[in-house]
Amino acid sequence: MQEKLTAITGSMGYFLPEIAIVISLVLLLIAGLFNAGRLNKLYQVLALAFLAVTMVLVVGQWQEVGDLVRPLPLFNNMVQLTSVSVFWKMICVLGAFITVAMGFGNQDFKDKSSEYYLLAFGVLLGAHLLVMANNLLTIYLSIELLSITAYILTSFSFNAASKEAAVKYLLFGAAASGVMLFGMSWLYALTGTLTIDDVQFLDGLIKANALPFTLAAIMTLAGLLYKISAAPMHIWAPDVYTAAPTPVAAYFSIVPKLAGIGILMKWMMVINLFGSSPVNWTIVLATIAMISIGIGNFSALWQNNVKRLLAYSSIAHSGFLVAGLVAYSETAYKAILFYSAIYLLMNMAAFLFVNHAEKEWGYTKVEDYKGLINVQPLLGVALVIVMIALTGLPPTGGFTGKFLIFSALWDSYVESGNDWSLYLLIFGLMNTVIALFYYLKLPYYIIFKNAEQKPQKQLIFSLQNFIGFFLVVMILLSFFKPDSLMRIINSVSFAF
Amino acid sequence: MLNNYLLSIIIFLPLIAALVVAFIPGKFKGAFKYIALGIASLQVLIAIVLLSGYDASYAGVNHLNEFQFLENVPWFDIHLSSFGHISADYIVGVDGLNMSMVLLSVVVMLIGTIASWNIKTREKGYFSLLLLLNGAILGCFLSLDFLLFYLFFEFMLLPMYFLIGLWGGVRREYASIKFFLYTLFGSIFILIAMIALNLSVVDPAATAVEAGLVQEGQVVSNEIVEQVQQSLAAGQLSRENLVHTFNMVYMTDPANYIPGSIMDYKVMKVILGQEGRLLMFLLLFIGFAIKIPVVPLHTWLPDAHVEAPTPISVILAGVLLKIGGYGLMRTAFMIIPDGVGYYGWMMGLLGVISIIYGALNALGSKDLKKMIAYSSVSHMGFVLLGLASGTTEGVSGAVYQMVSHGVISAALFLIVGVIYERGHDRIIQNYSGLINKMPRYTIFTVIFFFASLGLPGFSGFIAEIFVLLGSFNSSVVNGFLPKWMTIIAALGLIFSAAYYLWTIQRMFFGKFFTKIEVSNDELTDLNTREYVMLVPLVILALLMGVFPSFLLDMINNSIAVFTDVIGQYGDIIQQN
User: I want to staple B93 with a disulfide (CB 3.0 to 4.6 A). Which of B45, B67, B274, B312 is the partner?
Assistant: First the structure.
């Protein structure tokens, strides 16, 4: 008992960002008790300030883990602090920061404002725990934390569609976590432990019969795929993205998804059992990646609603991230980190501008963007660049990200003769052409069509657009100078 | 001092000007065309300086130190743990392969800018896109780093897409998206090959630094480079220290290939039932063939040309198509010379098909612009045939044809623009006896039609003769192409004579009448601006036809190295 307590108190020092999130959450809850409605501004400022503090703490942790050789077990190895997990935490906090900034100055949530922010912090806490998780139970709990807060956030448009989407999300989510929990229980039965990097866990799986092991691992995988909205567990995404408030949709496209990728990377290393797995996971993952890319791109072709289009695009991007898992090497994992960081930039930029257009001019459909370039040239050009980045064309970071993933796939094909890497490479590249077709839709309307009713010429200088333009510059810079981002990623080490 | 950065200046001058134009308030819209004209003229001046400093005795091609006006600056270096480094450099330089292309592009861009004088809608967008296109084209011709090349190659698409799609004819949107998708599809193939090459080739100098053989910042001597290459071949270098490069000149050296990689010379890796190197050659070929364009990948071209505004057609035919031919030479042919012999027969056949099919289509075209567009397909077929022959005459002829076609087709599209501007119609049958109304216009048309059909004394004749000679010789020299291909290709000359002469007869001779609503005083003869554009092109076409040695001297040394490299592999294939 004494030992456990000292372990817990000893771990606290490495848990500062999460503690900060919890304290912020509680403070927001208390602040929410006072005269809601009128204090919206205060909550927004508070939320941004808390996130800034969290960011500082996470960056501090980043410098701390610099000299970590092995993962640092915390709380009796329920969670682990590694350089990778801190990297993901930085991404998540950044995503949360931009999300909160996106809603800055809005009065959308009326008297529910403080709840909105505390739920957003709940998602963030779940994401933080998920990327650090080292135990099936922690994985499950943090996914639940992430999901339940997300269900409520979905309904924050306060209309019928958003409630319907929230219920759909809840039902799918409940089913997915049920399946995952069932899979985990099998894994426990097979190994007798829940700690995933434990020797006992790996030993148990190596000795286990191939069939139950495969089924259990796939069931667990299903829950994670659901979080990253990869096919075939993607069905909730379009509805939720469309119906939820735009900042929330942006949040969902980044934080839960990238945290999910973070834990998936770890999970793949575990169930590969250092190469002695009886199952060839690359086939499974390659199939998932191909279906995700295919479904995402082909469905996006027919979309008129911008947020729905972005939802399908985010499904396709999940496919590309999973493609990195197929290549399965240190290079590939670093390529995933790079891609994720770029994905954060470009998706957030896209949502920032879409949110601006929706709030200021009521744009929801692609056709609404007609002739935007004539009225708001700067915004129009920025959106075009973002769309080019999402397609994966130079000179944007989107190209560099895809380039690294494809390089990793080529390399995996050459080095390990993995045919699926090659098929996936070809499939992914061909899909870029299809993707161009729908990503160009927005620039097409912005530039080629003339608007019947033009929005008034007005200043577009707001905090949101400022962040958006900053992100666009970063997208371009990450193409011309990818080494600076790569240097950050290179301080991450994987235990291959 | 400035001399060392001439190439960067010629590339970035228009790019910076494009930004300037984009930020000048719209009320100064009268100034945009003068800015564009000023930049294009400056580029011509810079090109003249380049030409005067250019020493044709250096071959370049596969020796980095033989490139002139070389600028070599590290761009980025990504370290990917066990995989090694991925590094790209900003390398621009000229040799015999791209010098002529640079000269051609600055001339055509200047003509294209003058042709844009009549653009009256959204000038700001038009001229900033035109300048962007200008910079991207030159960047494409001058880059010696594959990633840089690819960047400019892709970057060309966007301005072109908007220029056709916004200022084009009735079906402009269809034509522009078709152009974009075709070329992007092609560039995906190029991307695959580029990644494969990057994975397979190391930068020996940078690898020496990483492996600790030399201190950082020190000059890497040739001995060290050889030492690195030897240990690379022996597999003694740790993977982590390898610096993967995009440098296209390093890619031409077999010693820089990592043993066991996709593109390895010695142990051919089989991918999807085909040897890796050959497959990559095929991918590069498809990618650039779309750009040339080669039948059956040409269908975007007639649409794009018919819908594009005149100046854009001029640039498209005059310069953009050449990027296909040049790209093929610089990448596929030089990096994977073993593929030339293997696919030579197929490429020759496609070239011949393009010549004949393009000519027949031109013969059947009712629209004058479509006819010229198909004649481009036909004439670019000679480029492919010449390249596929792998002989000195053939390759020289191909390069000559690219320059000659650049000049002549630019003029031909201007000529179409003249009649379209006046009559708002391009259907050949709707005009007759134009010589009575527009005698000077008729003279220029006839001159360029004859130049294009290969009349001796004009540049096209020299180019086509060289190509035919080269492809005929090929069966003796290296056995790439059978003799019958040359014979059929020669038939293409007869067809092109047929469609040009028939058009002259229908449109210009006979009694004057038009089937369109046009008042008599609208069909005026050429104005000064049109003379300014057409006269220099006539002079160029004539000069190149009478003094071929000027251009040939410039490219000879490089072409000799080029064919030598291909020949070495041709011999190996013949022996097998």
Answer: B67
